[in-house]
## 1
Amino acid sequence: MREVTRHVDSVMACLSKGLAAPIGSILAGSADFIDQARRKRKLLGGGMRQAGVIAAPGILALTEMAARLDEDHRNARYLAEGLAKLPCVDLNPADVHINLVWFRFNADIDAAELMAALKQAGFLANPPHQGAMRLVTHWQVGRADIDRLLEVMQRVLCD
């Protein structure tokens, strides 16, 4: 983290995305910067009472979930490699570095059919747009889930 942030004065990180907290972000910077941010937050009505209930999942996200982000990234690469093997999918697994997998396929595919098949198999996704789609791995997605997803994608996209 130090290497990534060495050229900036402040940094903000969301805890509710890949770290599985229901809400929250952290802000880091100089003491003066944080004092100014606190004042501006209060001026804009951003104060909270009894915030410990919200802070607890954030602390858990930082202490427990951050260590497993690499697993999400490995699972995304596994998903990308599986999708790239499908003859109807355009994807270079080397382009996948985090838990987001973007890929392209034949734009003539019936999006409603794809979404229904994914939902029936227990997967949620946003509908494809012009033959492009994004899938996301997270702490609740394992290799068995990915294998099942790849079977659905093969059946709907390629068969």
## 2
Amino acid sequence: MFRHILNRLPWLLVPLLAVITGSCRRIPDPPSPDDTSLFAACVIPGTASTIDIVTFNVEGFPKAGYTSVTALSALVKAIDPDIVALQEVVSEADFNRMVKLMSGWTGYFYPVNNDEWNLAYLIKDSEMEVIPGTVRTLFRDDFYAFPRPPFEIMVSHKPSGRELLLINLHLKCCGGSDNENSRRSASRQLKEYLDEQRAGDAVVMLGDYNDEIASESPEENPFINFITDATSYTFADMAIATGSQLWWSYPSWPSHIDHILVTNELSADIDTTVVVKASPCYPDYGEVLSDHRPVAIKIIP
């Protein structure tokens, strides 16, 4: 009997091994950081005649280690913007590794230690110059409204000389009255800051707002204070927010929660605002890059 079981053992192990190996997820090979062709069919690249700016929540970068480093480098190079505002950058070391792979770019990492919720910028050196003394965080003492303090920089567009003030946001997430009130408090304070201290500046306030902007109800829309002041502020992605969910920035919910707000100094100069849907070009997008999609704006200098 024992010998009979031993004789059958290899045949019993075959289906077991098939189950085990079949359940293992394939680990994607790291793409080349310079392989812009990987995403070419899925992006609208930046142009020399526009200021191209992107916001992208990179969901715990690098969520798949070095593969995320090279994939994000390749995606950014394919989009070819002048500035990228990033949210959820866990590792400063891996962020710096990526910047080293991106010749002609400079990285600016969050000046506060915020665990896995750090913000960062990528700046294309040939197009943009950060004005010295303008890199800072805002509202650092208000954790309720700003668990991730906004990251502000001022840049000069080298070809045109135009100056832009950028504010990179990652507001409090999730539903519930407390979280919604946190975002409402943040919106109120940000508008007061822009109205009182940044009047006349060309401002781009972009990032993961963690809420939708389509509703006209003050009870549902914490950013209604910006929307009702249409002479001073414009959500450049409003048409996306009120359009088909196929193009929303957070497809798994689905919702559109990543936004780009500009002040009236820039409203007339908006050329195009798009959500970059890169997953058809890169099937491992969700496992390697993010559960969000980049949002990009083209501004006429």
## 3
Amino acid sequence: MKHVKAVIFDWAGTVVDYGSLAPMGAFVETFEQFGVAITIDEARGPMGMAKRPHIAALMALPRVSQAWADKYGRTPGEEDIDAVYDVFVPKNIAVAASYSSVIPGVAEVASALRRDDIRIGTTTGYTREIMAEIVPGAAAQGFSPDSIVCTGDTPEGRPSPYMIYKTLPELGVWRAKDAIKVDDTEVGIEEGINGGTWAVGVAVSGNAFGMAEDDVKALAPDEFVWRRKAAIQKLQAAGAHYVIDSVADLMPVVRDIDARLARGERP
């Protein structure tokens, strides 16, 4: 390929941790420790954001804010967000390595991209401390990107494009239109759109579907269809130019984008 220069992947739910399951238990357990129950669906809502803003978004939910007020006599403030975050991060670090399995097809796609001289970048809502638990396992399974940009490396996280702007020069790419952002969350798609890249949503292996691979395979066909349709619609609503089931399906999209660039099209 001549025109696509870089693919920038998200991590959890896109290249590792099928279903983006690692943070969910940590969020639920953390809030339980403060005497406030949240559901897995609530925890999933802000996925893709940096983790402190994620916690702030959860605490701003009317039901959660009211539960906090019932417990503590006041609605949650900045100091409460900090307290919850300080408990959450060690929990997420503790489980991260257990959820570092590379999603099927990712290693093969990474190899195909490298054969075409396409650079591989990554951005993530995880901190570097969390990523330190994930990167070695992913590398051992065949996924080792050229760049990793984490929460805290830039002034803001998603949906701002700052992590994209940091990634592109690290990859030696200066035209955002020559890059593709691949992500399983709405804010990750928005990150790519705001950064001027093509945006590819990942519907089945990630947060939008939110199930382990074995559980996905065990679904009745009609339930799989409606869950998949709902996941696709979420990502399309966020602005995705394409939506695929998993990264295993990416290469035809890369080739199509390369052809569109050759015709002078832009994201």
## 4
Amino acid sequence: MDRMTQFYIGGEWVAPVSGETMPVMNPANGERLGTVALGNAEDVDRAVAAATTAFDSFSLTSKADRLALLRRIREVSERRLEELAQAMRMEMGAPITFSREMQADAAIGHLDGFIDSSRRSRNVSS
């Protein structure tokens, strides 16, 4: 995990306003896994403003392009399934089979559901 001390806002990595961090610990053995940034209300406001701006243009994206994006996210997630499962295992202190089958695999299942739902929906913008 290392140090995740920036937020991805508006298409770029930015430092949080407060600069505060906290450790991420494995609850099963107390091992320190890394450090994450703590956000505050200003960080949330920046992220919401960026998301609002992105929504304005993304809402004009065609159904085909949205489906292609969802399929790409699924492809990358499936390729990195073991890495995701291991990260979840360490962060939660859960058995690896639980992390693989109930968490990482579930994420793929959710993406499959989004893809199927999007595929069957009418092409509407906004």
